[in-house]
Amino acid sequence: MEIGKRIQQLRREKNLTQEQTAAALGVTSAAVSKWETGAAVPDVAMLCPLARLLGTTVDQLLDFRPALEQEEINVLLEQRQKLFEAGKAAEAAASCEALLREYPDDLRLKCAAAGLYIMYVPAICDAGGMDDPIGRAVSLLEESRESGDPVLAASSRSMLVNLYVMREEYDRALAVLDEEPEARQNIGTARANILLRKNELDGAEKLYQRELWSSGRNVVLNLIGMYNAARGREDWARAMECLDIALEAEKVLRTEELGGLTGSLHMLRAEALRKQGRPDEAMESLTEYVDRSLAQWARLNSAEALHSAFYNRLDVRGSGMSAAYLAKYIRAALEESEELAPLREREDFRSLLARLAEAGAQ
């Protein structure tokens, strides 16, 4: 609401006329009328007396807020994400930075903006909209990790660790991990057990589902780590076994239904099979990776897809990135992958790239 309309609304709520307001403040009624119509604004020295007269504060009078509500952040960043999707990465990044300047102390906004920069790093770099989007994301997360909100701080630290690993700053990644409290008790499950005893079944089941999904994802991530260790030793039998178990875990626990890692696991299989000199099987896994990734992305970002029969009490938001943009990203990754370079001359590999190009053009 504009300040003039706010003054008028508050004045009327106090049952004051413009003349009474003017007399109380020592100004003319014409001045009050100009404030309310937007033809002029009150002098700075008049703000405190005016706020006291109208029974409010200067911050409320000016609609000043140091931070945004989460839903407001979601809406504002969704608008900027549409710019990224439309190929206007430089404009989107500039708009994000303007928003960050408007709310310089909003740590939730900084964490969310960092996530957006991470998602669209290739587009930002291609457009020249920012010299170092990863570095900018790191600086934002370094601030938001200091939040007194434990959930926000933990989310910021998680992303920050991944970015430091990406930049090969391993000691910094370890230092951030050292800030995480040791897991002494599973608080989520303990809370769910208490709610169950209180017969609050819906709340208990929601917590159990959240803990199960999180645990299942951790199982898969640990198996991927074991795969990478085995691959480093060129123990391909063990490496493939780790991937097979991870795929089975996703299937049994149904974690793919809410953004699991099945697509990524097929990509790892393709790379491992190619390294073992099994190109036909590698192409099968690569095709599976593309199919599953695009299908999952479309499902998670559709209106009815953020549901799972097994995790039906969880409210999971899609990333907002379109399947078309993802197709462009995957195509670029396949074309640039050194691991898959020997497959590029195959007809089925070129057909896969053509499919991705078609999907990216939609």
Describe this structure in words.
By secondary structure, the protein is mainly α. It folds into three domains: 3-62, 434 Repressor (Amino-terminal Domain) (Orthogonal Bundle); 70-177, Alpha Horseshoe (Serine Threonine Protein Phosphatase 5, Tetratricopeptide repeat), CATH 1.25.40; 187-360, no CATH class. Helix content is 70%, strand content 0%. It contains 19 helices and no strands. The chain has helices at residues 3-13, 18-25, 29-37, 44-53, 58-62, 70-85, 89-102, 107-119, 121-127, 133-144, 150-166, 170-177, 187-197, 201-232, 236-253, 262-275, 279-300, 323-336, 347-360. Helix 10 runs antiparallel to helix 11 (150-166). The longest helix is centred in the middle third of the chain and has 32 residues, at 201-232. The two termini are 39 Å apart. The mean pLDDT is 88.
End-to-end distance: 39 Å
Order of helices and strands: HHHHHHHHHHHHHHHHHHH
Which structural class best describes the helix and strand composition? mainly alpha
Largest sheet report:
none
Topology:
Blueprint: H1 3-13, H2 18-25, H3 29-37, H4 44-53, H5 58-62, H6 70-85, H7 89-102, H8 107-119, H9 121-127, H10 133-144, H11 150-166, H12 170-177, H13 187-197, H14 201-232, H15 236-253, H16 262-275, H17 279-300, H18 323-336, H19 347-360
Helix pairs in contact: 1-3, 2-3, 6-7, 6-8, 8-10, 8-11, 10-11, 11-12, 13-14, 14-15, 15-16, 16-17, 17-18, 18-19
